[in-house]
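Most newcomers find our protein records easier to grasp once they have seen one. Nothing more is needed to start thinking about how sequence determines fold. Here is such a record, shown just as it appears in the course material:
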Amino acid sequence: MKVHHVVEGPDNGEVVVLSGSIGSNLNMWNPQVGPLTEAGYRVVRYDQRGHGRTPVPESPCTLADLGGDVVELLDELGVERAHFVGLSLGGMTGMWLGIHRPERIASLVLCCTSPKLGTKESWEDRARAARTQGMTTIADSSIQRWFTEDWRSANPQEAREYHHMTAATPAEGYAACCAAIGSMDVLGDLPRVSAPTLVISGADDPATPPEQHGKLIAAEVPGARHEVVEHAAHLGNVEQPARFTELILGHLAATAR
C-alpha cells in the first residue's frame, strides 16, 4: 500500500509523522504544521488506507497493516527513526509501532485514542452502516463526537468542512479501517513501549473519555505522562490547536534534551 503523503519543513529537521483519525484526511493536521515546521521539524502527514488520496484496500485491514504502512513510508523517505503523533486511529497506529517497531520510533504522542475501543460487533455495525446508509449519515454522527456543541456553533463553516471530510471518505475505505479498530486490543502489550510517550485527552471527548482511555494508556506505558485539555472533544488538535501544539512541541523538545 502506497499511502498518499505530504512532506513539509527543512530537509535536515527531525522527522515528525502525523497520523489521523478514521473518517479524516491529512488536512486535519493543518493547525499543527506551521508551528512544527517553524520549530525546525520535517513534518510528514499521510492519509490512512482508503482515506483522502490513499487507495481503498481490497479487503479489511488490521492495525498491523496500518503500522506497516508507516514503516514502508519511512523506508521510502529514507528515515530511520521518527517522532510519531497520532490521534484516534492514528494513536492506535502509534501504539502498534511503539510495541512492534520500537527501533523506528523516537517518541510518541497519543491523542484522544484507546488501546481497545468498543467491540468487534459494534465496529462491524459501523462498517455496515457506512456501506448501506452512506457516509453522509456517518458524518452526521461523527461531527457530534469530534467537536463540542459550543465549538460547532462558533465555527459553523469549519464544522461543515470537517463534516464533508468524513462524508467524502469512501465507504469501503472507512469500513476497512473499522475492521482494524474492531480487532484491536493492545492493552496487554503497552508495557513493551520504550519510546518517551505523552498521552493527550480531550476533557469533553465522548469517543475516548480521559478516565477510561488516556489515563489507562499512561498507566501502562512506562514513564508516560497524561495531559487532559479542557473544552476539547475528539478532534482536540482542531478544537484547541494552541494547547495541543504546545504540548506536542514541549514533548518533542524534552525528548531531544
Remarks:
- The chain has a mean pLDDT of 98.
- Residues 241-256 form the longest helix (16 residues).
